[in-house]
Amino acid sequence: MRLSDTMLGAILLMLGLAMGVYAYGFPAIPGQRYGAATFPLLISGGFVVCAIVLLVSGFRASPTPLVMRTEWTRKPGALTAVLITILCVIAYIVLARPVGFIPTSTAILLILFRLLGVSWWKSIAFAIGATLLTDYIFRTLLLVPLPFGVMPRMPW
Fold this sequence. Notes:
Layout: E1 2-3, H1 5-24, H2 38-60, E2 67-68, H3 78-99, H4 101-115, H5 120-141
Antiparallel strand pairs: 1-2
Helix pairs in contact: 1-2, 3-4, 4-5
C-alpha cells in the first residue's frame, strides 16, 4: 500500500495540528523560560512544515490515486499479517499492566515469529530469550520500570 504525497501531507498536517493543540495545554515549569510544551510544539511545527511541502508537491505532480495497492499487498496473507501485528500492539497496550511485561511480550513475540514462518522451537526460544534480555536491559541498565503483573520479581 502506498500513499500519495497529497494524502501523506494531509495526514501529517492533521497529526501536527492535533499534537500542537494538545501540547499547547501543557503546564509551564515555574522558574523556567521553556515549559513542557516547547519540544512538542517544535515537533508539531516541523510536522506542519513538512505537510505543507508534501501537499504542494502532491498538487504540482500529475494526478495519482490517494492510496495505491503495491505488489506486496496482493500476496496472500499480507494484509492479515498487518492486521495481526496491529492487534498485537493493541494487546500489549491492554494486557501489559495487568498480566505483566514478560508473559505479554513472550506471547506476542511467539505469535509474530510464527507469523513469519519461524519453527515452533526457535520461536519459543527466541521469544523467551528476547523478552528476558529486553526486561534485563530496561529494568537494570536503563532503570525503566516494566509492569510485573502476575509475574514474580526477576533476580535482576
